[in-house]
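Researcher: Please translate sequence to structure tokens.
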Amino acid sequence: MIKHLATTILLLAAASPAWSQGAKNFDAVAAAPSSHQVLLENESLRVLRVSIAPGATEPVHDHQWPSVMYFERAQPITYITYKLVDGAPVEIERVDAPVDALTGAVSAPPEGLHAVRNRGTGQFLALRVEFKPGRHSQ
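Model: Translation complete:
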């Protein structure tokens, strides 16, 4: 049940893909560089370290590719989804996830506009592997 909460949260964001709705670049690395560090990138994939300080809310961003996310150091979070209205992000929903909902790894489709608030007392750390479309290495 709890594992499904993390998957549900990621699926909520997939409902509003921002990259097709507006001109602003909401890619995680461009829009939220303080919380998304590129560890590896090539034509097939991109590996990100996601890091959010206690009490911090990362900037609004999206993830345009399917991915797998591994929670290294989970914290209780609030997952905030947005939609674009006249080109500006407008909050549409908040979901609180307890720390025990964010364990192991989850797969997700592309995620629409969202932000994450770390409600915990420690650093939130995760690895995200994004799979780019097209020809993949074997």
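Researcher: Any highlights?
Model: Confidence is low (pLDDT under 50) at residues 1-5, 11-23.
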